[in-house]
């Protein structure tokens, strides 16, 4: 397991402990498992883009884990709640080209909300990078749900905004970026409490990022495949 994911897995356990201290009658509802992820970066890098990661998608009292996002629900609002959130992002790398600059993974912390409405789920999270970029990040996403027998499909679409400070540190360009994306999460019920999960996403890079000669991609494809056990 990579260092960033060990750190965020520990944070998830701390959130669970907080929830247990707040409401001891609560119990874990959702999925816990193990998977393999692929998350390349825009510039040519020596860093490995694949690795074994925990798969965590559950609620435990006011605490929660949503694959790469962890947090605590602060107050109810609308179809969801206001949340204190962080995200496990493996955006750090060591560049392949001289001078082979090393970039540390970001440490996002902020506020957000997940609104699960009758027409789908809407997510908005605003972060401040407590790491070296000191940039701002805004993640917006819509997800629908389609059930078909033992399968559940969750098509997704959204936008990643990254401030000029973030883009300058990671992509070498002093301009903000708006990166649209589409994705699909698929759950297959294997029987009993066991599920196979696959999540894929394509993100199109903003022109500001692609203006860097070291960036030779128009888009980034990331994915996750995991085996999980569902707690009711």
Automatic annotation (TrEMBL):
<feature type="signal peptide">
    <location>
        <begin position="1"/>
        <end position="21"/>
    </location>
</feature>
<protein>
    <recommendedName>
        <fullName>MipA/OmpV family protein</fullName>
    </recommendedName>
</protein>
<dbReference type="Pfam" id="PF06629">
    <property type="entry name" value="MipA"/>
</dbReference>
<keyword id="KW-0732">Signal</keyword>
<dbReference type="InterPro" id="IPR010583">
    <property type="entry name" value="MipA"/>
</dbReference>
């Amino acid at each position: 397991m990579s260092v960033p994911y060990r750190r965020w897995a520990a944070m998830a356990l701390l959130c669970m402990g907080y929830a247990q201290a707040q409401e001891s009658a609560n119990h874990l509802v959702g999925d816990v498992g193990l998977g393999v992820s692929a998350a390349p970066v825009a510039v040519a890098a020596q860093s490995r883009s694949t690795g074994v990661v925990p798969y965590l998608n559950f609620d435990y009292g006011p605490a929660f884990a949503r694959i790469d996002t962890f947090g605590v629900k602060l107050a109810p609002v609308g179809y969801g709640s206001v949340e204190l959130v962080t995200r496990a992002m493996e955006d750090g790398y060591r560049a392949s080209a001289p001078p082979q600059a090393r970039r540390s993974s970001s440490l996002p912390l902020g506020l957000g909300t997940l609104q699960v409405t009758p027409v789908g789920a809407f997510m908005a999270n605003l972060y401040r990078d407590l790491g070296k970029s000191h940039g701002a990040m805004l993640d917006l996403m819509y997800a629908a749900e389609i059930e078909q027998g033992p399968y559940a499909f969750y098509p997704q679409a959204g936008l990643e905004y990254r401030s000029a400070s973030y883009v300058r540190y990671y992509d070498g360009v002093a301009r903000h970026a708006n990166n649209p994306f589409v994705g699909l999460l698929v759950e297959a019920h294997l029987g009993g409490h066991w599920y196979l999960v696959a999540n894929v996403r394509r993100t199109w890079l903003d022109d500001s990022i692609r203006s860097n000669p070291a960036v030779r991609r128009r888009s980034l494809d990331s994915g996750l495949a995991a085996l999980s056990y569902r707690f009711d």
